[in-house]
């Protein structure tokens, strides 16, 4: 990445263009010396994973220029599409120059365990990796009860350190950073963490009768069993910010094909 130009950063999220966490991340990226452009969903798009869905009129997806609080001179757009769609569009002709790094967040709530598969925040970062850009998903562990004043300054404090770690790796590297919702001076040491088996919460879905066909009702609760030792969930509960390197979808050689099929492939 040796170059005389500043690295270009695309800032996005899944909580939407009006999230203070997005504004805080964009400001932190600017203060870290990155050339910043902001493009985020026009409305909340949580839980969409790496979906590239957008609201389309034919082949047209609307983009609305915005001015964001505390970010004078920073180009910003509300896009009628999901986070991964925004990242993908940036690499398919929309942004010139293309970004070198995609910063996604700051998400209101942790993105932990294998359940990050469903996170729009993480989906955007992984899509960056598919384009051989650096990707970083940033999340604030606020728990199930969202605080009135989330401590956005906690992940912002760690961003320069984590950016240095990320940019020291090969392009296409993707990290996920989770930070406890605590004052900066109460944060534990930054720790590398493996993904918990699922996540920090459990979702239960039940069918309830109604007119005309009933509906599915979801409720969220914390698991009764304690977190797996050494996992991202456990380390966060102990007050540690966690950093996890992520891999996107890839093939896994070694499918045990029947011998006849193996012979056909080798012929």
Please describe the structure with a list of short key phrases separated by commas or semicolons.
Stationary-phase Survival Protein Sure Homolog, Chain: A; globular; 13 strands; alpha/beta; 6 helices; 9-stranded mixed beta sheet
Overview in brief:
The protein has 267 residues and is of the alpha/beta class.
Mean pLDDT comes to: 92
Spatial strand order of the main sheet: 5-6-2-1-7-8-9-13-10
Strand element count: 13
Main pleated-sheet profile: 9 strands, mixed
- What is the name of the CATH topology? Stationary-phase Survival Protein Sure Homolog, Chain: A
SSE ordering: EHEEEEEHEHEHEEEEHEH
Written account of the structure:
The protein is an alpha/beta fold. It has one domain: Stationary-phase Survival Protein Sure Homolog, Chain: A, CATH 3.40.1210. It has 6 helices and 13 strands. The protein has a 9-stranded mixed β-sheet with strand order 5-6-2-1-7-8-9-13-10, sandwiched between helices. Strands 3-4 form a two-stranded antiparallel ribbon. Helix 1 crosses helix 4 and helix 2 runs parallel beside helix 3. The longest helix is centred in the middle third of the chain and has 15 residues, at 153-167. It is globular, with a radius of gyration of 20 Å.
How are the SSEs ordered, and which strands pair?
Elements: E1 8-12, H1 20-31, E2 35-41, E3 56-57, E4 60-61, E5 63-66, E6 76-79, H2 83-90, E7 101-108, H3 120-130, E8 134-141, H4 153-167, E9 174-180, E10 191-192, E11 202-208, E12 215-221, H5 232-237, E13 242-246, H6 259-266
Parallel strand pairs: 1-2, 1-7, 2-6, 7-8, 8-9, 10-13
Antiparallel strand pairs: 3-4, 5-6, 9-13, 11-12
Helix pairs in contact: 1-4, 2-3
